[in-house]
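Let's inspect one such protein example.
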Amino acid sequence: MIMTITMPSIRITTQKIKILEYLWSVNHHPTADEIYSEVKKDLPAISLATVYRNLHSLAEEGDIQKIEVNKEFRFDGDISPHQHCVCKKCGNISEIFSKDIARHSMQNAETEDFEPHSVKTIFHGICRECK
């Protein structure tokens, strides 16, 4: 997958690029510690604090998604409209790519007093393996 980074208002650093590249390369939702372990292979001098700082900055800027599962943050490099399904037993995260869910939520949240710009949907339940 080829993705273009367009973030004119922030400084692009090697650390951010490596973090993004790692997140784009995986099919799961890693923790900051997992990301640190992988990025450290290419950038041995990087600190865990730098990874945390960059992850939170990227999430605030909308370049990645931050998902809280069992009081722990997981990160997703896919910012396309999709929903997350979190298993309450094992913490596994799966995804649903439904534009209808996002569209329905956005339309129903719009009122005279509020104009929504984005929505994050997280379903909590039990995965097939834990059922």
Q: What stands out?
A: The mean pLDDT is 88. The domain at 83-125 is CATH 3.30.1490 (Dna Ligase; domain 1).
